[in-house]
Amino acid sequence: MKRNIKHTWHLAHPVARVWHYISTSELIAQWLMENNFKPEVGHHFQFKTRPMPGFDGNVFCEVLEVIPNERLSYSWKGGPKPGEISLDSVVIWTLTPQGDGTQLVLEHKGFDGFKNLMAYIAMNMGWNSKIRRKLEAMLNDETHATA
């Protein structure tokens, strides 16, 4: 059984500003994880964070789609220890102008079977609480880089 995460957030910022925050490596590092991301299809990059039970702290990714100010997707692969991938998934960000702001849809697809149940539960909560709050706080803070 495959499980998918989907969250829709309404942000009081223009699409270009939201795009800047989800597609710029230095900004992503502040609201998600350290990374070597580039918004170029085919670019391989990593997210790095502190290890925790069942996760070695490394996420291996490849940029799959870049449509500036509209859509960004990348693979998301990680596991419990180096060299062992147990989660092979895809993250998709979709941006839609909405009044003076942006509708941002996050989809994280591919949590396959029981082996990924705990990752699904943790990441579903994490995306919609901790990560959303950090991204919104940065967008609201005028001291951060702007588009």
Q: Can you offer a commentary on this structure?
A:
The protein is an alpha+beta fold. The protein has a single domain (2-140), classed as START domain (Alpha-D-Glucose-1,6-Bisphosphate, Chain A, domain 4). It has helices at 15-23, 25-31, 117-140; strands at 2-11, 34-35, 44-48, 58-67, 71-78, 87-98, 101-112. A hairpin with a 3-residue loop joins strand 4 and strand 5. The longest helix has 24 residues, at 117-140. The termini are far apart. The mean pLDDT is 94.
Q: What is the approximate shape? A: globular
Structural class: alpha+beta
Q: State the separation between the terminal residues, measured CA to CA.
A: 40 Å
Return Rg in Å. Answer: 15 Å
Mean pLDDT across every amino acid position: 94
Number of helices: 3
Biggest pleated-sheet summary = 7 strands, antiparallel
Beta-strand content bin: 35-45%
- In CATH, the architecture is 2-Layer Sandwich
Strand order of the largest sheet: 1-7-6-5-4-3-2
- The CATH superfamily title: START domain
User: What's the domain count?
Assistant: 1
The number of strands is: 7
Poorly predicted runs: none
Write the layout of secondary structure elements.
Blueprint lengths: L1 E10 L3 H9 L1 H7 L2 E2 L8 E5 L9 E10 L3 E8 L8 E12 L2 E12 L4 H24 L7
Antiparallel strand pairs: 1-7, 2-3, 3-4, 4-5, 5-6, 6-7
Task: State the main characteristics.
single chain; 147 residues; alpha+beta; Alpha-D-Glucose-1,6-Bisphosphate, Chain A, domain 4; 7-stranded antiparallel sheet; 7 strands; 27% helix; globular
